[in-house]
Amino acid sequence: MSFDVGGRLKELRVAAGLSQRELAARSGVTHSLISLIEQNRNSPSVASLRKILDGIPMTMVNFFDEARTPKDKVFFEASDLLDLTSRLHQVNGGDSRGQMSFRQVGDAQAHNLQILHECYEPGADTGAAMLKHESHEGGVVLAGELEVTVGDQIKVLAPGDAYLFDSRIPHRFRNIGSARCIVVSACTPPYL
């Protein structure tokens, strides 16, 4: 069963009483981007969808989570992780190059801590528009290589390398290698 990103965005925008132009102005994106996403003619980047959802306001977890994870759950199997991003790529015809997936452990809002299992396919990029939010985040690369940009600092991280920074500093993640990159990260307070 595929997730209708465009339909869900339109449903939320209308429920918030916003026109496409009003949501675009609140989000700092173009009106045409909102229109293309709602028509499922454009698959938004993680950064673009996050900016748009800030205009509603709503988290990505609430955007995608059909059944909330119980707050008292302690242990999670791989199949229990909440997929936050792979649904964004269904519009692109199934080509995995450049795709990424972020899978969340449990209810991040209840614990004020977001733990993610991240996969970046070769060419994946969080976007030229750098991310910036009120959090702190860190992670460890488990496989592959990941180029991390934080402000004016850029470093390619290999397995075992890690990062930790104030997320209010503009940042970006890119897999510039030829193999899948896997990262486990944490962010507080939760961003996605």
What distance separates the N and C termini? Answer: 23 Å
- Overall 3D form: globular
Number of strands: 9
CATH class of the largest domain: Mainly Beta
CATH topology of the largest domain: Jelly Rolls
Question: In terms of per-residue confidence, which ranges show pLDDT below 50 for 5 or more consecutive residues?
Answer: 90-95
Count the domains. 2
Widest β-sheet, arrangement of strands: 1-2-3-9-4-7
Strand content: 25-35%
Largest sheet: 6 strands, antiparallel
Radius of gyration: 16 Å
Order of helices and strands: HHHHHEEHEEEEEEE
| Class from helix and strand fractions | alpha+beta
Tell me the CATH architecture of the largest domain: Sandwich
What is the helix content?
Answer: 10-25%
Tally of contiguous helical segments: 6
If you had to describe this structure to a student in words, what would you say it looks like?
It comes from Bosea thiooxidans. This is Transcriptional regulator, contains XRE-family HTH domain. This protein is α+β, with helices and mostly antiparallel strands. The protein folds into two domains: 5-58, Orthogonal Bundle (434 Repressor (Amino-terminal Domain)), CATH 1.10.260; 78-188, Jelly Rolls, CATH 2.60.120.10. 23% of the residues lie in helices and 26% in strands. It has six helices and nine strands. A six-stranded antiparallel sheet has the order 1-2-3-9-4-7. The chain has a three-stranded antiparallel sheet with strand order 6-5-8, with no helix packed on it. Strand 5 (146-150) and strand 6 form a beta hairpin. Helix 2 (20-27) crosses helix 3 and helix 2 (20-27) packs across helix 4. The longest helix is centred in the first third of the chain and has 11 residues, at 5-15. The two termini are 23 Å apart. Residues 90-95 have low confidence and may be disordered.
